[in-house]
Amino acid sequence: MTTAAIIVAAGRGTRAGGDLPKQWQDLAGEPVLSHTIRAFAGQVDRLVLVIHPDDRTRAAGFGLPMVEGAATRAGSVRNALDWLEGQGVTKVLIHDGARPLVSGAVIGAVLQALDRATGAAPALPVTDALWRGGDTVDGTAPRDGLWRAQTPQGFRFDAILAAHRAHPGDAADDVEVARWAGHTVAIVPGDEDNLKLTYAQDFTRAARLLKGRDMDIRLGNGYDVHAFTTGDHVWLCGVRVPHARALLGHSDADVGMHALTDAIYGALAEGDIGVHFPPSDPQWKGAESHIFLRHAMSRVTARGYSVANCDVTLVCERPKIGPHQAEMRAALAAIMGLDMDRISVKATTSERLGFTGREEGIAALATCALVRA
C-alpha cells in the first residue's frame, strides 16, 4: 500500500492579518507551512502541496510536488487527487496547511483507522455550552454528540477521488464530501494542540506550544568510588575536609566532584572523565578536580544547554558531611557558575555494610539535568 498526504495551502487567510497569507507568515522563525510539512515527514510515502499560483516561487524551496489550487477548497483538493491518480496511492490524508502542530500520534491514528473504515478524521468533543444569538443570547443548543473537526482527514483513495468528482460544489471539509457520497467516516481522538491558525492571536498560542515541544531535557547519572589511603584530609565537592585518612586517586580523588562531572558528560552523551582526561596521561597526575568539572560545564555551554539542577550523594560512615554541606554547595556553585539553589549535596551511610560500611573508602552518586529551550 502507498500512502499520500495532500497539504492544502492555496488560501489567502485574510482574517489572520499581516502582509502575507497565514501559511507563509513567520512562526518561531519559520513559515507556518514549514512546520506543517515537517509534521508529515516519515509518516507517509508521498506528499503533495496545493498552492496559490502567486506562491509557486516561494513554495519551490520545499522541493515537493506542487498542484495549483482552485477557486474553492473542494476544487483545490480535487486537483491534488487528480494529480495523484495512477500513482498507486491507496490511502490519502488531506490536511490544512494552517495546522502546523499536528502530532504523529494523530496522523498515525487516522491512517490506522482506514484499515477498517473508508474514511477517518480526528475530532474533539464539544464541552462548552452552546448559545444562539448576536449581541445577546437568544437561545441555547444541546452539545450532545457534537464534535470539533480537525485534519488530517483520511480516506481510501479511490473512494474519495470518486466522491470529489461527483460532488456538485464546495464543502466545509472532505468529510462532508465523503458522507455525501454515502461513505462511513470514523472519528479518532483529536488533539487540543492541533489548532488551525485563523486569527492573529492564534500565532501567539502556537509559538508557545512549539517552544514547549522544542525544549530538550537531558538527564545524566554519575558514580565514583575511591579507597582510603594514608593522609590527614579528603577533598569532597571542592572542600578540604579534615580526616584521619585521605582518598587514593590519580587526581585529587574528589569522589563527589568526579561523580558530578560524569553525570554531566553522561547527560551530553560525551563519555566520562576518563575519555577527556585519560589516567594514562601523566599531566593529570594529582590534578585538581575542578579542572574536570569546568571542562564539563564548558561542554554544556558549547552544546547550548544549561544546568537545571544537580544532586550529589556521598556514601560514607566518616567523615561527617553535614557540617560541610553548605560550603560544598557554594564551592560547586562557584566552579559551575550556578546559583546554590540548583545544587544539592547530601550524604548517607551504608549502615556499616560493604566497603563504605567498613570505612575502606567513599562512594558518590550524582544526577544532573540539562535543559535547552
Structure, explained:
Strand 14 (233-236) and strand 15 form a beta hairpin. The protein has helices spanning 32-39, 56-59, 73-84, 104-113, 157-166, 174-180, 200-214, 255-268, 273-276, 290-302, 325-336, 354-357; strands spanning 2-9, 26-27, 30-31, 46-51, 66-68, 89-96, 119-125, 130-133, 137-141, 147-149, 153-156, 185-189, 216-230, 233-236, 239-242, 245-247, 306-315, 343-348, 361-372. The strands form five sheets. Strands 1, 4, 5, 6, 7, 10, 11 and 12 form an eight-stranded mixed beta sheet that branches. Strands 16-13-19-17-18 form a five-stranded mixed beta sheet. The protein has a two-stranded antiparallel ribbon with strand order 2-3. It has 373 residues and is of the alpha/beta class. The radius of gyration is 30 Å and the shape is elongated. The model has no long low-confidence stretch (mean pLDDT 94). 30% of the residues lie in helices and 30% in strands.
What structural keywords apply?
373 residues; five-stranded mixed beta sheet; 19 strands; elongated
List the helices and strands and how they pair.
Blueprint (H helix, E strand, L loop, with lengths): L1 E8 L16 E2 L2 E2 H8 L6 E6 L4 H4 L6 E3 L4 H12 L4 E8 L7 H10 L5 E7 L4 E4 L3 E5 L5 E3 L3 E4 H10 L7 H7 L4 E5 L10 H15 L1 E15 L2 E4 L2 E4 L2 E3 L7 H14 L4 H4 L13 H13 L3 E10 L9 H12 L6 E6 L5 H4 L3 E12 L1
Parallel strand pairs: 1-4, 1-6, 4-5, 7-12, 17-18
Antiparallel strand pairs: 2-3, 6-11, 7-10, 7-11, 8-9, 13-16, 13-19, 14-15, 17-19
